[in-house]
Amino acid sequence: MKRQEEMKRKEELKRQEEMKRKEELKKQEELKKQEEMKRQEEMKRKEDLKRQEELKKQEEEEESEDTISYYYECYHEGIKFQDEKSYVTHFKSEHPNDYPFYCNICHKGFYSYMAIDNHCRSKGH
Ligand SMILES: [Zn+2]
Ligand SMILES: [Zn+2]
Asked: Separation of 125 CA from ligand 2 center, angstroms?
């Protein structure tokens, strides 16, 4: 009788240990899963960041292309100017006998793009 009880107790203990072991395993698997998820999220985050940076770079490149295409070029020596004011200043000091802008139709000279615009509008061309 006593032996039987002992055996029963041992079995109970074994069962509990087995359950504990299984729970431990389950916990470990869950931890692993969580880590894997974390890793994937981290990777996704990094990819997103990379994509955003690339997009930003593309936008910046597009912007710089815009500014580069927007210049005034002296037709005497090919010097480029970012704005009209420095272009006209250059013309007045380096080429005082020439105008920075000429009307394409009647070839009249002007000192500003606005003036040539007004001229063409008033002349109707
Ligand atoms: Zn020049
Ligand atoms: Zn004209």
From this structure: 7
- Count of other CB atoms within 10 angstroms of residue 117: 13
Q: Considering only the top CATH level, what class is 72-123?
A: alpha beta
Please tell me the distance between residue 60's alpha carbon and the centre of ligand 1 in angstroms: 30
CB burial readout 66-94, b (16+ within 10 A) else e: eeeeeebebeeeeeebeebeebbebbeee
Which amino acid makes up residue 39? R
The tokens describing 54, both together, are: 């690339």
- Structural contact between residues 119 and 103, judged by C-beta atoms closer than 8 angstroms: yes
Interval 12-54: pLDDT, tens: 999 999 999 999 999 999 999 999 999 999 999 999 999 999 9
How far, in Å, from the CA of 102 to the mean position of ligand 2?
8
- For residue 94, the CA-to-ligand 1 centroid distance in Å is 6
The answer to pTM > 0.85 is: no
112 CA → ligand 1 middle, Å:
15
